[in-house]
Amino acid sequence: MDDLNQNTSQNYTGGNPYESVAPTSATPEPTGSVQFGQVAGGLVYAGFLQRFLAALIDGVLVGVGSAIISAMFGVLGDSAKSLGSLLGMIAGYAYFVYFTSQKGQTLGKQAMGIRVQNMETGQNLDVVSAILREVVGKFISSLVLLLGYFWMLWDPNKQTWHDKIAKSVVVKVK
Fold first, then answer.
1. Are 112 and 52 within 8 A, CB to CB?
2. Phi/psi at 83 (nearest 5 deg)?
3. Quick check: 141 and 149 in contact, CB under 8 A?
4. pLDDT tens track for 110-120
5. 83-107: b or e for each residue (b if 16 or more CB lie within 10 Å)?
């Protein structure tokens, strides 16, 4: 019994012998799961109102541009007016695809402080993904009473159907 007491007294350092000390590391512990509305890395998903106002601004810009193109061709006659309408529509799609793929944000999104990015890499969408999102995806999102647009209201990543198709998210810019 004396040997047991003697060994214990030799190892006792004055602290609580039942308390274990974990080694410290230079990397901080994870703070838990990502909160609703946030992306890993501290980015925050854009809300419905921000996205709606950005779309409204872009809609006005594209509408005015298309009207100008149509009017220019309209003075040439009815068949030219149809061509002008078609060119105005193509110019509108080109606006969305260009700004989404090259800048990550249209002028409306820039005004609202939000941007579109690839959900896996955080980079701008490539041209094919931008076409899928802006042309094909938005058409699909509008098919059933705009349900694809409202989908973001209950989606944990605040993605619309066109975001899901293009594997994109819309985040707030710091």
1. no
2. -65, -40
3. yes
4. 999 999 999 99
5. ebbeebeeebeebbbebbbeebbbe
